[in-house]
Amino acid sequence: MQLQRPAILFPLFASLTSLPGIGPRLASIMEKRIGKTIIELLRHAPTNVIDRRARPAISDIQSGQLVTIDAVITKQDIAPAKTSRPSRIIAETDTGSIELVFFRADPSYIRRALPIGERRLISGTAELFQGRVQIAHPDYILSADKADELPLFEPIYPLSAGLKGKILRKAIETSLARLTPLPEWATEVIAAQNWPPFDEAMKALHHPQSGRDISANAPARERLAFDELLANQVALAMIRHDTSLQGAGNRFQGDGSLRDALVKALPFTLTEGQKSALRDIYEDQEQAGRMLRLVQGDVGSGKTIIALLAMLHVVECNNQAAMLAPTEILARQHFKTISALCAPLNVRVELLVSQMKRSERQRILADLEAGEVAIIIGTHALLSDDVHFHQLGLAVVDEQHRFGVRQRVLLSEKGAACDVLVMTATPIPRTLAMTAYGDLKSSIIAGKPAGRKPIETALINLDRIAEIVEKLRLQIAQGHRVYWICPLVEESDKSDITAAEDRFRHLQQLLPDANPQLVHGRMKTDEKEAAMGAFQTGAAQLLVATTVIEVGVDVPEASIIIIEHAERFGLAQLHQLRGRVGRGERQSVCLLAYQGPLSETASARLKIMRESDDGFVLAEEDLRLRGPGEILGQRQSGMPEFSLVDLAAHGHLLPLAREAADRIIAQDPDLSSDASAPLRLLLSLFEKDNAVQFLTSG
Ligand code: ADP
Ligand code: MG
């Protein structure tokens, strides 16, 4: 199915560099948080609003108050460049005088901006200092003829390092100007709810005039959230409707030989939670019709073995199985575990990743197509066009939250109506799972394997890093294996890696006996493998890593994890990271090393981490705590990624969107009619890492 992007939307899909003031450097900073195109920028909603209307008399000004004053410059005391002494400018108003203070400012700039005898409109945060009213570095200094350029209300956006609010606001204003009225796509719902048209809603979104306009329930915000949900639901309804993706499904009734042999060979017995999830899966597999099942089980609950048993079931029936992992490290680990378990069963397992010798890749692909490979494990490399199966019966997607709908669909498309099993440690509330998957059944693995000792979680200020290292020295001498997780840095992946490399060298010097190793996402495969391997065997006792090891990595002997700048992570991510330890016999410890001062939310988050070890509780808290304006790393939760939908606040719009979507697709399954033209616009407007992208990219 192919949807063309309508020409009327072309200006909205221009790159951000087409905006004045945005060059390649800024665009690359914005890409990480916001996206590449104008429409993505427009979906970047403000989280607060500043009101610049207050123009109090000088004597009424409170410390910390945001004020705008109209004054004449009377005195300049300009410090030479590069001195620590600030420049001071005195300005007189009708009600008294005020002092403007500039640190390390360019003298010629100040002379130009604030000439003696001229009138200026000045806006900024005032402070009272020794009885004087001061504004340090005013936000605005405008000459009389430009006074009307002062925004009375100014939206505040989540920013990242290197991106200034002023530039962002200007870019958004220019973008809004490129937005023309569009034909309505959900006429009835919009009318019934009394919502503004799309372009007006977008403008209102970026021009809040009060706290109420910022709230999720402001009409403009509700409308846009509905639009985003509707786009998502229409895409899912299209997938549901697309018969090429449905098919009758398989009916697997294996004799149990492989599964029994595996279970017998395991050094442990399955937990009740694992058994019950397996019962659900086997039942689905045995029935005609396609299995679409989500297995939710907290970190360490033992999902890999479940995936393997489900795969062995289809192998018993002479079908193939594929397992998609989000990182190469995880794919390799699964390959190692699974091929070891399968060797005695005579089941051939192969690995497919992108960094691979061409000849080896060709060999595996040929054997896969010939049906000689029973189980294939891999990364996104599994999704390439040249990967063909002989008879794919089951596609497993591990740690599904790392993938978009598109990837799940691509994999399952490789087998006619193959079963799909998705596994996640990040719990997804039922209604939300529906947004992401349509009609997906879910099983929950309750409990963890017996004998696991609870992980001790402690908070420590990063200022005490020397102490941390000394303690580690002792623990390493006692044979502990330690993960040291390096923080996310805002600007780019590159600086994440520099930070990790610096920390690695630092620890290498201080703890040479631990034979520290480093892994990060940009390393070559063999380097990564060597580092992980050394840690797995115990040749190295300290692994310094970026969050590449966040999901799935299983080294049962590791018992200590230190998370540097824990305050920068979300709860779900911290929980995933912490789940790297507590997998073996040893009492495990998770050290959350934070840099103060902590924001209220960050401090609440860290406190909850100390109190709870339950992924479900943490996921709920994560949602609750994710206050507006808090910038967290990407893809932290199992939720589909929405930009304008706040799932906690907009849940009530979901059934509305789903109903509308079903109605639309029942009438026009591929949206090809003229009447569906507005909907085609909608789908383009919200194409992202979701089903829409799959449908539109062809
Ligand atoms: P996750 O659910 O996080 O993917 P894994 O599948 O990686 O968890 O399993 C974590 C560890 O627990 C592995 O080392 C695995 O061998 C072990 N394990 C799995 N099931 C059991 C069980 N029933 N009893 C004991 N250990 C188990
Ligand atoms: Mg796992």
Overall pLDDT level: 86
Tell me the distance between the termini.
Answer: 7 Å
How many helix segments? 26
**Could you say which overall geometry the principal axes of the C-alpha atoms support?**
globular
CATH topology descriptor of the largest domain: Rossmann fold
The tally of strands reads 21
Question: What fraction strand?
Answer: 15-25%
Please, how many domains?
4
CATH class call of the largest domain: Alpha Beta
Low-confidence stretches: 627-640, 689-698
Computed over alpha carbons, the radius of gyration is: 29 Å
* Biggest sheet record: 7 strands, parallel
The named CATH superfamily of the largest domain: P-loop containing nucleotide triphosphate hydrolases
Structural class: alpha/beta
- Strands of the largest sheet, in order across it? 11-12-10-13-14-9-15
Percentage of residues assigned to helices: 25-40%
- The name of the CATH architecture of the largest domain is 3-Layer(aba) Sandwich
What ligands are attached or bound here? adenosine-5'-diphosphate, magnesium ion
Features of the shown structure:
single chain; 698 residues; alpha/beta; OB fold (Dihydrolipoamide Acetyltransferase, E2P); Rossmann fold; 4 domains; 26 helices; globular; binds adenosine-5'-diphosphate; binds magnesium ion
